[in-house]
Task: inverse folding
């Protein structure tokens, strides 16, 4: 019995998606709930599971296709079994009976994958040095020559450039610019396109300004060093800096509620909850999962949730619910070595806090020059809603709490 494989139901905020990979080919055996394909949207990647055991009989929408919710992707022949592979011994006997196929160079064996690549790029076996057993030319040997640019191509092959190459579900076009130097054209991912759209939207629609300050991280670092091992043993998670910043930001938002607000039309919406977005790097780009009701979370819960989000971002398993909403965002460019930056607001939010690299600097303390671990902080805000005084007070509140961490615990 043939069963349809449909695109998952997208939320209202997702119009369509792109097929980025198929994990099975037609004719292959599949099992119920096994991931068959992946669909990328501007928010998350959706996995398409097999509805039943059987054989993938047809792929209707291939890699690169744009699909909408519940669209037909392919079909499964339920209960069927894939054609059995020939016994290994019989296969080896058949291979032994076949004459070794060679390219133009005599007495050189060529692996099938290598032969296909050589034909596509018009490479002669004489140009290659086989690294396989008995000098057999492998695919890696051909790729090595292609990478070095030493492969000679026929006029027909050169005229056929640029050639389309599929890599990890993304069409990459190898080309040359007007000066004959190599270039590569890669379609922008849906996530990157959406990020670009929102960043431009933020700069066009918000009166965005940034205020800066610096914080002495020594008190937090000393507190963290004293209790790090016990904290990790008790909760099974590392005590990082982000939980301190989340707690400090929540208390600052309570004192300056305008930073936790947003503009909707002609109205200002003051949120009575604190959903903090944490910018996380992923293979697809920067994503911002949400710590919901962060004011009710302990530092251990914050650290555990951030670790969970980091793993989900790495494995591309973040859900729409994970990244939807948020009233304020924190981003940490310091993990990449950034000393100072101006973060861009994540609409419709009105503020974002930028953390940076901790750097030892000579500072004056009580009339004496001392070496302290300092971090620059940046607070970008929407000036339509937040005055400069409030923006500065917000950042100073965070600074004061981090330089006296007991205030975070006492919520004062």
Result:
């Amino acid at each position: 019995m043939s069963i349809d494989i449909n695109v998952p139901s997208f939320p209202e905020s997702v119009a369509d998606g792109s097929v980025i990979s198929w994990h099975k080919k037609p004719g292959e055996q599949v099992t119920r709930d096994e991931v068959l394909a992946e669909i990328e949207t501007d928010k998350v990647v959706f996995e398409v599971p097999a509805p039943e055991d059987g054989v993938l009989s047809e792929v209707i929408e291939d890699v690169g296709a744009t699909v909408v919710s519940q669209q037909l992707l392919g079909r499964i022949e339920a209960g069927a079994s894939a054609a059995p592979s020939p016994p290994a011994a019989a296969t080896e006997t058949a291979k032994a009976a076949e004459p070794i196929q060679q390219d133009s160079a005599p007495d050189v064996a060529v692996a099938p994958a290598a032969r296909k690549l050589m034909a596509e790029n018009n490479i002669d076996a004489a140009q290659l040095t086989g690294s396989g057993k008995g000098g057999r030319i492998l695919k890696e040997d051909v790729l090595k020559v292609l990478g070095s640019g030493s492969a000679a191509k026929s006029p027909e092959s050169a005229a056929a450039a640029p050639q389309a190459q599929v890599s990890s579900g993304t069409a990459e076009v190898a080309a040359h610019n007007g000066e004959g130097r190599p270039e590569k054209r890669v379609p922008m991912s849906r996530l990157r396109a959406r990020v670009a759209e929102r960043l431009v939207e933020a700069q066009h629609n918000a009166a965005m300004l940034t205020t800066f300050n610096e914080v002495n991280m020594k008190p937090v670092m000393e507190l963290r060093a004293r209790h790090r091992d016990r904290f990790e043993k008790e909760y099974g998670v590392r005590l990082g800096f982000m939980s301190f910043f989340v707690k400090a930001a929540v208390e600052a938002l309570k004192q300056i509620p305008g930073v936790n607000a947003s503009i909707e039309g002609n109205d200002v919406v003051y949120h009575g909850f604190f959903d903090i977005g944490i910018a996380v790097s992923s293979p697809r780009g920067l994503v911002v999962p949400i710590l919901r009701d962060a004011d009710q979370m302990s530092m251990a819960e914050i650290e555990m949730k951030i670790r969970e989000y980091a793993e989900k971002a790495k494995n591309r398993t973040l859900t729409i619910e994970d990244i939807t909403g948020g009233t304020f965002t924190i981003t940490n460019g310091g993990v990449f070595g950034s000393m100072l930056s101006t973060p861009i607001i994540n609409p419709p939010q009105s503020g974002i806090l930028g953390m940076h690299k901790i750097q030892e600097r000579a500072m004056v303390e009580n009339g004496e020059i001392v070496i302290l671990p300092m971090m620059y902080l940046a607070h970008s805000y929407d000036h339509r809603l937040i005055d400069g005084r409030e923006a500065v007070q917000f950042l100073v509140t965070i600074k004061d709490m981090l330089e006296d961490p007991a205030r975070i615990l006492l919520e004062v």
Q: What stands out?
A: The first helix runs from residue 88 to 97. The CA atoms of residues 168 and 242 lie 33 Å apart.
